[in-house]
Amino acid sequence: MTLDRTNPEGAIAEAAKAYSNWGRWGSDDRLGTLNFLDEGKRREGAALVRRGVSFSLAQRFDMDGPQKGWRRRTNPVHTMLDTGTDAALANQGFPHGMGGADDVIAMPLQCSTQWDGLGHIFDHGKAWNGRDAAKTVTSDGDLVTGIEHMAPYVAGRGVLLDVGQVVGEGGELPDGFAITEEHLSATAEAHGVAVGRGDLVLVRTGRLARARREGWGEYAGGPAPGLSFSTAGWLHRTEIAAIATDTWGFEVRPNEFEHAFQPLHQVAIPNMGLLIGEMWDLDALAADCAADGVHDFWLTAAPLPITGAVGSPINPIAVK
């Protein structure tokens, strides 16, 4: 794909038409590309467990996170409702010396490791599968494609593409680096792994590793490496079920067009129905994959079944 950097509107329209999955799974579909992840693909993924070693791919959920308040996104606020002090003072009202602790958390659903649901992004007022955005997501939430519908299905064969290690220097890509189809293919070849129908693809750029070393800075919303808009065809053609990265926005930032904001999201979510994950912690998994030479594994990453939500925090688990 040749990008005219002065014409994001035209590029988005062209890609949306070329890579649309509207109607592919019927007019009432709520899963999008998760339809590619069937029972056979889950059996294939489960068979990849050899050593039994597991990795959490989630960042921490706490007040020291990356959020800076953009569009009212804040870091989680964790508050104790009952504590050990209350128990020691015996003021909780329990009998026979019993005490306990309880807590509550308040947070935007996309403030740390998360999935973007199908109701998260619209294209010219249209939601996934051509639905009217105004009738799909209201103040009551996503009435049709709420992320709760995906909760049973996000488990299968995970594939790590450590583009930062293969293409970058010192295991990291610089901010503004646009990952192309050629980079993805070269990384898969270097890892000796194939990417295809129903896979859950994880792309490591090294951006999170740098944020940990240097501080959060502009990690949440600022410049970052990420997928090029030109990968829309690859995302569609490979028929992957989902893709996630270690960056805030999945696609390269600044975006590749003038006066544009997240154009690949506008194609991938409402038109392609692609499940997108962001802010995943892939570093420990990547180190293990490099050590044993195996870059595919069993991956489970269910969203919380929050009724009507357009995104969800997750704790993805990779097992090798």
Fold and architecture overview:
- With 320 residues, this protein is an alpha/beta fold.
- It has 2 domains: 8-71 and 108-319, Putative cyclase (Glucose Oxidase, domain 1), CATH 3.50.30.50; 76-106, no CATH class.
- Helices cover 24% and strands 18% of the residues.
- It is built from 10 helices and 15 strands.
- It has a 9-stranded mixed β-sheet with strand order 1-15-13-7-9-11-12-4-14. Strands 2-3 form a two-stranded antiparallel ribbon. Strands 5-6 form a two-stranded antiparallel ribbon.
- Helix 1 (8-18) packs parallel to helix 9 (263-272).
- The model has no long low-confidence stretch (mean pLDDT 97).
- It comes from Streptomyces rishiriensis.
- Pfam families: Cyclase (PF04199).
Task: Set out the fold topology.
Layout: H1 8-18, H2 39-46, E1 54-56, E2 77-82, H3 84-88, E3 102-106, E4 114-116, H4 133-136, E5 137-138, E6 141-142, E7 155-162, H5 163-167, E8 178-179, H6 181-191, E9 200-204, H7 207-214, E10 226-227, H8 232-237, E11 242-245, H9 263-272, E12 275-278, H10 283-292, E13 296-300, E14 311-313, E15 317-319
Helix pairs in contact: 1-9
Summed up, what is this model?
The protein is an alpha/beta fold and 320 residues long. The chain is 24% helix and 18% strand.
Could you tell me the radius of gyration in angstroms?
20 Å
Mean pLDDT: 97
Tally of separate helices: 10
* CATH H-tier superfamily of the largest domain: Putative cyclase
Q: What is the total tally of β strands?
A: 15
Sheet having the most strands: 9 strands, mixed
Protein name: Kynurenine formamidase
Pfam families: Cyclase
